[in-house]
Amino acid sequence: MLSKFNIQDRVRLLNQGIEGLGDVIYWMSRDCRLQDNAALLFAQSIAIAKKRHLRIVFDAQFAGESPRQQGFLLQGLQELAVDCKEFNLSCEFLYGRNAIPLVEFTKLNKVCCVVTDFDPLKFHQSRKHDFCKSSTVPVYEVDAHNIVPLWFASSKLEFAAYTIRPKITKLLPIYLTEIPELLIHPYGTAEIASIENQSDGGNELKSGESQAKIKLSQFIESKLDAYDELRNDPSLNFQSGLSPYLHFGMISAQRVALEVRKIDVNPDSKAAFLEELIIRKELSDNFCYYNPNYYNFNGFHSWAQSTLNEHRHDPREYLYSLEQFENAETHDKYWNAAQREMMITGKMHGYMRMYWAKKILEWTRSPEEALDYAIILNDKYSLDGRDPNGYTGIAWSIGGVHDRAWSERPVFGKIRFMNDSGLKRKFDIEKYVENIKLLQNENNNIGNSVHSLFGGL
Fold first, then answer.
1. Among 234, 269, 290, which residue terminates a domain?
2. Which of 15, 9, 291 is nearest to 129 (CA)?
């Protein structure tokens, strides 16, 4: 039997403050959905207890996000704004590159309190810190993204998956439970602001909470049973395609895990998928929250820094500029195919992303330059860019984070090495290249679009 859903363990008080006489505000940022949203449920519980209206506020200015990401997110927010009316929730959009607009909004409306999402990334943590310094009302932070709240899963930076896995596994019976449904709000009258999608990102992949549910159903019905066997083959399409929806919080990892656990499929496939969805995903949040250098060389383990320093002046057979990488102009057709997949679809197969990042290390002047290039390209073209999974995956590939030391070799030192021989040995890499060529030809015929041909968690 599932335990009762516990919201309180997911909540932290960021700012004591004094409650105002106005409405309760849910400052939505990372979890852009109405259902299975612990932050929204917590905000509603306060609003009902105090007989206040509940207003969702979203900061619609996307500092640093690419047009592709903006387009995908704004399309989902348009759907969310319409759905708010059904639950008598107001939905409003603010514009500003700092916390000032929200501070002014709370003062003008004499709000009761503010509830916001948890996000481990520096940009979001800094913004909340700035808001709390200027806010006079209580501010609560709710981890509605992880299944086990980050601060309960671990209070420190974990070394690897094997160190955090038993901690999360022990807590899953407590936290992996059915989430109560959102209620039609009994107080106030909904006001819905429109948000115009002016992005030229050209997304063809449909966005929003409803599409996330469809994507989950399609994965469970047609791919989950063979996931363990086929997921690492980039020439096939057996990843879930859920990562953009999970990144923007259009579906909760909690809901995905609950639905997957219900299905009678190959147990190895179920275990492999849940390992990625829960352990690896929550390990990434742990890394970015407890390691302030998650995006630079200083965030690597000491052994990795030492070995990369010892080999930083090794001769490189090839050196490419950021522009050459971006335009897929390397000598390696497999790497070029991976880069084109990301540029065309907004996604890159997970196995190829490891190869892609490691080759950037091999073909740049320093590990710092490699890290910068990989982050720039991933954040620009991937729909799930600017995500803990992305920063952690790049740090794993280039800096050995959550990995161990391997046999020493030029440039890489003791960082795990990958080459094209491994690609040829493991699967039909030529088929993958042909798939990307076909995709590129189709893309050239219809313009710059994002397709859902290649998915991934």
1. 290
2. 15
